[in-house]
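name: query_chain
kind: protein
chains: 1
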Amino acid sequence: MLSSPFSPWRSVLTPQAALDLANFHLENARKATNSEIALTFCKDAEIALARIRTSVRKTCVSSLGAEDRAVCNEIATTYFELGELFDGLGCRNKAQACYKNEEKWG
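structure:
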C-alpha cells in the first residue's frame, strides 16, 4: 500500500499541517497557466485551511505563545494570498470569504 504525505480529505489537520498543505496548493495555483487548473488548486487550498477545527482556531488565535501567534499570522497571510488569487480568477465571493477568514486568524 502506498502512503500519502497528506491526510485523508475529511480528517482534521493541525494548523501547521493545514498551512503547509494550503501553501503547496497555492504555489501550484500560481504556477498554473490554465485558469481552470489554478482555480482547482485554490479550492484545494481553501479546503485544506477549512480542515482546522474551529476550537483549535479559537485557541490558536487567543494564545499568548509566540509560536502559536506566528502560525496564526501565517494562516492569515495565506488566506489573504488565496483571496488575491480568487479575485484574479474572477471569483469575488470566494475572495471576500478569504479576506473575512484572514481577519479571523490575524
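note: The CA atoms of residues 74 and 80 lie 10 Å apart.
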